[in-house]
User: Fold ornithine aminotransferase from Streptomyces endocoffeicus.
Amino acid sequence: MGPGRSAERAIAAAEAHGAHNYHPLPVVVASAEGAWMTDVAGRRYLDLLAGYSALNFGHRNRRLIEAAKAQLDRVTLTSRAFHHDRFGAFCSELAELCGMEMVLPMNTGAEAMETAVKTARKWGYRIKGVPDGRARIIAAANNFHGRTTTLISFSTDSEARADHGPFTPGFSIVPYGDLAAMAATLDAAPEETVAVLLEPIQGEAGVVVPPPGYLTGVRELTRERNVLFIADEIQSGLGRTGTTFACEHEGVVPDVYVLGKALGGGVVPVSAVVSSREVLGVHRPGEHGSTFGGNPLACAVALEVIAMVRTGEFQRHSATLGERLHRELGLLRGKGVQEVRGRGLWAGVDIDPSRGTGRQISERLMDRGVLVKDTHGATIRIAPPLVISEEDLAWGLDQLRTVLAE
Ligand SMILES: *Cc1c(COP(=O)(O)O)cnc(C)c1O
Assistant:
């Protein structure tokens, strides 16, 4: 079934006047609820992408929409030039959820990552005693931390970097999951290294889980060398993997969490850097900021997100349904699937090239009413809203089995 007339018009306008920095599937969404989206022609689709985990609590979650509506009727924006009555609660409750002391709110994930980089450098100069201009940060190959010029400066994705230079210096890249390489790179300049920056599971790389012991090893190496361990949990955090944070799978507590995506409940962009007083205490008035960061609407929605995460119910649901997801995907190995990775309700599925590219599989799933996103040619990602029912998940997997058998 092709897109209808009104969908065609919407797509044509987007093609003509929207920059082509994305290649969306030809579906035009008009409304959504829970794990389902409806297009302009009234066709329903099961959402197995969940806005790259920004929609962990489902589309238009009732609690989040009510929190947003109540706040819309009071005050939406003050700027940080003044206090507002949701800010203190947001900071203290998010810090508590993370087992940390301080919060620096921003809007998008990339902004929070930029903030983490600036914070680590400042901590290096003011606390660790790194000579001026020498701070170095270690990141992993195949990382994804966002799209700003500095963040792509340590990306290894040539598409993300192409024609965007010159780049920001001060970063070293190590292979992800290789503890010996991490130790060697740290020891090449331990006095100048201020941070190791990692996704505890690499999302955009195809849901890559590091070998057991890696995060624990990085934690030990960084602690011994007075280097900050910054965990980018923008996509992996807030329930996605069956725990509040993906670092918990190894019992690791980083020095800094970077959060985004689900923190805004799929309603507003909310991101944050969460850390100790020693680390975030380095910022002084005027040295960093954001007009919208920590605004009343963002804080009201995020406070409700924090309350929902605190119940543990989304983590439990993700862990339980995630077992079923990975069991059933595992059975597809050799039947159109080459490899499956992930944790909880999060999977990277490498498609056997003989069955088509990731894009072709995504298009065929769309025709059957299931929305997923391909990555790196041969991989599809499955990351449904954590509110998905077991029946809906089973139905979605049926569609995948059918498409792979065609
Ligand atoms: C999405 C993502 C980001 C960037 O977030 P934006 O809100 O798109 O800027 C950073 N890190 C990780 C791990 C992400 O998945």
The radius of gyration is 21 Å. The pocket of pyridoxal-5'-phosphate is lined by residues 52, 108-110, 113, 144-146, 199, 203-204, 232, 234-235, 260-261 (CB under 6 Å). The first helix runs from residue 5 to 17. Residues 94 and 306 are 7 Å apart (CA to CA).
